[in-house]
Input
Amino acid sequence: MNTIVITGVGVVSPLGIGIDVLWNNLLSSKTSLQHFNDLEAAGYRNTSACRVTDFEAPQITRGACMALEAAKQAIAQSNIQLPKNTGIFLGSTLGESMAYELAAEGEPIDPEAYNTFSIAKAIADTYQVIGPIQALSTACTAGNYAVGAAMAALQRGDIDVAIAGGAEPFSRIAMVGFTRSRAMAADGCKPFDANRTGMVLGEGAAIFIVERLDDAVKRGAMTLATVHALGLSCDAYHPTSPHPDGRGLTNAMNAAFKKSGINADDIDWVNIHGSGTRVSDAAESIALKNVFKNNMPLLSGSKGAIGHALGAASALELAICVKGIATQTIPPTPGYTIQDADIALDCTTQPVHKKINLVINNASAFGGLNASLLLGSSMY
Amino acid sequence: MPAIIATLEKEPGRPADPDTTGLYVVSNHIGTNSSLAFWKDVIKNGPAFANPELFPWTLANSVCGAIARHFGITGPNYTYTCPPDDETCINGVVKQAGEDREKYGLSATWIVIVH
Output
């Protein structure tokens, strides 16, 4: 079986453009949460969000523009000449949400020309590659799905290089929808914290260059991380709530272990989904206890700093995992201060420098989706 | 949604082992009508009073989730957005399903194309 590696990372996030800016701000426990006057003026009940305020793009193609910026960074870091058969694997929840909003407002727009596929196609067109395009509309798990699909295509030999990741522009549909679903936080996202009240909406993009290890070594590329396996499952329980016994994420993490042959006891760090909602965090904590029992790895989460970027969320957090592996550092968990008695698990509150060989990146989504991506150091 | 469920009830019918069944939905338009309807409701009633029941159906993976709930399918659950009749996309889905069958030990894989 071919070993699959990441050789480039690009990021557009509310906490900075470029992985190094995001990483340094995250290590300082900064948060990008802000009040927005435009949301207040429009009558939104919730007027705080994590938006990328230093990135200009046409609103109707903001998702594609963010993905292209992230792809540019990833390609530069990887220092790769993309072959013609490069595949594009892109995850998003809504695609260009603004197109749907404008169409509903009466603008003569075909919103389906702006769905998730359009963002993937924009990358393919920009780099004039003609490999397969997969647009994965798997909501808040989409980034993990996309990298897993890229891994599969590389292992099959369908392609030689993949551009993979997730993108999600700020969505007014999601802002209203999650607020009306009572999922939004009153005072910031606090993953696994006793006083957590919900999620905060974010936006952004993270894109990776993924290739076979042999090819990367042959061209002298620096490998940043190894992609070991993607584990997937579905709760099949409720449209918006996870199964309370945590079976979904339990099954997803166990699937990743089974596919990779790696044991749970060998995991050093879990980047939790940690959306900050009462039920989602509680279910994830049960899943973590089911899987790791008395050998709990260190836990961290970043949605308190960058918000929940929906289809880009797991990609952005995967970028954090890759940087953590590269620097052998687990970041703090902004928003987490007080252990919840029911969860009874701690998250990092400071950067932790330790040997990191293996990390799990967890993600869950409306519809009952669960995706756990298992990454390793390039030496493991 | 009821029409999709009814079609699947007829063929292939209830999965023998829903825990080892994978689900792969391919469409270019799932969520579009709900997104438009939801945003029209927001325009009409204001963001503070929009109907929250529409929101989960704005997501492209809502149909895949609903099929999974109806049949109790807990295996891998994919939603692909791709243009109608995009053979490369469909081929990729078929390959992924075949690989998942082997790697997850799936007993069945359902590929559902929604036009």
In short: The first strand of chain B starts at residue 21 and ends at 27. Residues 87-103 of chain B form the longest helix (17 residues). Chain B touches chain A through 55 residues (CB under 8 Å). The helical segments of chain B are 2-10, 32-45, 62-71, 87-103.
